[in-house]
Design goal:
single chain, about 5% strand, about 55% helix, alpha+beta, 6 strands, 16 helices
């Protein structure tokens, strides 16, 4: 940095821009590399948004530091006149790098000032919409969630992302860790069928997740939950749902937001089942969950495809185990959360075991009993 400063300031003012254009990319690359080595937080951000976007951001910061780029917002008025003057001769970033920098800013969880986003959007030629949704394509890895098994799909190519962006109109492609993503203007709830059809046609059966609608400044949240849903899609919705929408799985995502807390909730409320055999526990769990969700024994019996008397008998056993909690609204609410948590966690564990090539059985997994698994008797557990 000292070397480039010496070379700049030792030359006439008219040559500063030429020297910067020649030297700055190499200096920015060295600065970024040093920051990656010395600052773990910077290294994490670099892995998330990519080397090119990081270097583009460092170049912008260096331009601001050298007074060769106008500072956005009211602060510009406080800069001495002699430092603002050269700014008009600096050329904007090329289109591709400008779009990468804009995507990196929108994908960042930190609050980016509106005027900075507007300036980046102007350089990128991407008008900022009022609201956006994230689209994440299945590939090498999706956040810290289990891989979307059992589909074995090749990693999505940048060309596919570009084609998808073109098919959806004003799409802004980018990368978050190993995932190829897209930010698209939110067309509104009435336009969802058209969005889903365009995605299905462009992806050709490849799994994808669509985030919830957010203000453009909160695009990182839509990206985060779309990535989370893509990793858990088979657990919360089954493998048949190729294009999953966060809007359809809000409660499941909330339940699985912190798996440690979900396990603690299940352990606390379902402790009365611990002394039963796995088979007894599973039958009582599915019965209790069906009863809580449907509100009555006949409805639960239809859900489970068993005789209503079977449900009533199991409910008497459940009431002996859980006591007054069955009649208190708050306790019933937490019981339902605990049961749903255990069911979703069991599916997530199964996905992880399949992802690692394991076929081991899971104890106490909760599965609704269909016509193929009717082992219940009319009067028996």
């Amino acid at each position: 940095m000292c070397e480039i400063l010496n070379r700049i300031w030792s030359r006439p003012r008219g040559e500063w821009t030429r020297v910067v254009r020649k030297e700055l990319p190499a200096v920015a690359a060295q600065v970024a590399e040093e920051l990656r080595r010395s600052t773990p937080a910077f290294a994490a951000v670099s892995r998330r948004i990519g080397t090119e976007a990081v270097q583009a951001a460092v170049e912008e910061a260096l331009l601001l530091t050298l007074g060769l780029r106008p500072v956005p917002g009211p602060e510009r008025r406080r800069i001495p006149q002699q430092r603002r003057k050269p700014a008009r001769v600096v050329t904007p970033m090329p289109g591709t790098r400008a779009r990468q920098a804009l995507f990196a800013a929108l994908a960042d969880d930190r609050c980016i000032p509106a005027d900075v986003l507007a300036e980046l959007a102007g350089q990128a030629g991407w008008p900022l919409p009022r609201r956006v949704r994230a689209v994440v394509l299945a590939g090498a890895g999706t956040g810290d969630a289990p891989a979307p098994v059992p589909h074995l799909v090749p990693p999505p190519s940048p060309q596919l992302t570009s084609q998808l962006a073109a098919a959806l109109g004003q799409g802004l492609p980018g990368t978050v860790e190993a995932d190829l993503c897209l930010l698209v203007p939110d067309p509104g709830p009435r336009a969802r069928p058209a969005l889903e059809a365009a995605l299905d046609a462009a992806l050709g059966g490849r799994p994808a997740a669509v985030g919830h609608s957010v203000p453009v400044a909160e695009a990182a949240a839509s990206l985060r939950w779309a990535r989370r849903l893509l990793g858990l899609a088979a657990a919360v919705s089954g493998p048949a749902e190729r294009i999953a929408f966060v809007d359809d799985h809000l409660s499941d995502l909330l339940v699985l937001q912190d798996e440690s807390l979900a396990r603690a909730l299940s352990a606390r409320w379902l402790r009365p089942l611990d002394d039963l055999t796995p088979r007894q526990s599973e039958r009582l769990e599915v019965t209790l969950l069906a009863w809580l969700e449907s509100g009555g024994a006949p409805e639960a019996a239809r859900t489970l495809n068993v005789h209503p008397q079977t449900v009533r008998y199991r409910l008497r056993q459940i009431e002996k185990l859980f006591g007054p909690a069955m009649r208190e609204p708050h306790s019933r609410f937490e019981l339902e959360l605990a049961l749903r948590s255990r069911r979703l966690l069991a599916r997530a564990r199964l996905l992880r075991s399949r992802a690692h090539g394991s076929a081991r059985a899971l104890g106490a997994a909760v599965h609704p009993l269909g016509a193929g698994g009717r082992a219940a008797r009319v009067n028996g557990l």
